[in-house]
Amino acid sequence: MEKKSNIAKEIFVSEEEKTLNWKDIQLAFEKTFGKEVYNSWLSNISLLKEYNDYILLGVPTRFFRDWIVSRYLDKMLELLKSFKLSINRIEFKISEESKSITSAENKDNDLNRVTEIKDSILNYNRLNPNLNFSNFIKGSSNEIALTSSQKICEQLSRYNPLYIYGGVGLGKTHLLNAIGLELQSENNVMFISAERFMYHFIKSIKKNDMVNFKDFFRKSSVFIIDDIQFIRGKEGLQEEFFHTFNSLIEKSSQIIISADRAPMKLDRVQERIKSRLSGGLVVDIDSPDQELKIKIIKKRIEDIQNQFKENSNISDEVIEFLANECKTNIRELIGVLNRVITFSRIHKKTLSIQDCKNILKDVFNQPKIITVDKIQNTVSNFFNIPLSEMLSQRRSRPLARPRQIAMYLAKKMTTRSLPEIGRRFANRDHTTVIHAVKTITRLSEKDDEMKKNVSHLKSLLLEE
Ligand code: ADP
Ligand code: MG
Fold this sequence. Notes:
Bound molecules: adenosine-5'-diphosphate, magnesium ion
Structural class: alpha/beta
Radius of gyration: 27 Å
């Protein structure tokens, strides 16, 4: 009986929907995802088995699978459906320790490969000599972060790791860089952003060169990693980071980490990593107050005066005005100041506040055009989920909440109607949008986290 129905099924399949031709599908992948993604990732997938309602694909490693699932799965499924409608899921089998690299390639001189990884990493391991302690200005918002950083340099492993967090443009990278500069003469300092770390990680996987990768990072005695929030949602990378972290701590290497949020707020990061990250000293950098902003501006003016040997035409009144206008971001403050100074030097003119307003009107008064697209992109970036997943029909909370927030923002920040917004979210009904707006309104009243996220997103959208 059982057998019969299977046969019947098979006949049914072969009549109604031909079996899949993997070559055709790969061509379609290449066309849809582009040559680069295809060559790096999708071309390495093989079709292992085809069932009526799903297919089993072979991938070289777990990391590979995670990467593909987190980025391309929805679109792949969509595409597969166009070949065979009955397919409703994709499963993966990991053929661990990929044999895809031939022994001939393996014979590739090992030494060469070491230098290759070294060179490419060293290119990003350069410290910027201009971001040092002596030009980092102390204020109440960054004092603890600054003194902790300096203490680390005096006595390594006193706090391990040192974790510094805070919003964009508040001086995290500056401090990390300053620590690196201070320590580099007597230590093997590694300074890398989490994004770069991943880049080398992937490259090593693809080249089957993990041994060198591990050695390279694990032999540093001071390991500084910037913007660790980048590992959110990336399982394979977290795994590797966790092992790197442990082996560094084991041999008492100093680890310094920056992030845009506190360790425990790193959603979609393994608990064991969060607890490691909070295991040393955690300090934050806050938005600068008026006093610090003014100090930073004055120092900058002084530097430029020394550099060009000329007097500045920037009055105290103007300084105060600039500090007042740039609410939180020191990077923006410096950018604005540079424009004002350049203008005044070119025109040899002492500037009034009105002049500044004119010079900076595109920064301060620009009418902000916020589109649904932009909101969707900003929200999916913020939560670190692929846009296609945020718009997909999947209902798991990590996707549904960001989706609702994006709908909410689309309603609040654009002039689009509810049905229009619904259409832009993969043809959803306007009642779904209403529900999202209500939910997010309610949650941001009672949930601090939600309130913070929504207001952060609003300011991201209004920035730029
Ligand atoms: P983050 O990494 O937190 O986004 P950065 O370290 O890149 O921020 O800082 C942004 C800019 O502001 C840099 O040019 C940095 O030198 C400058 N900056 C930040 N804080 C200070 C400070 N306290 N004193 C002097 N410059 C600062
Ligand atoms: Mg930074």
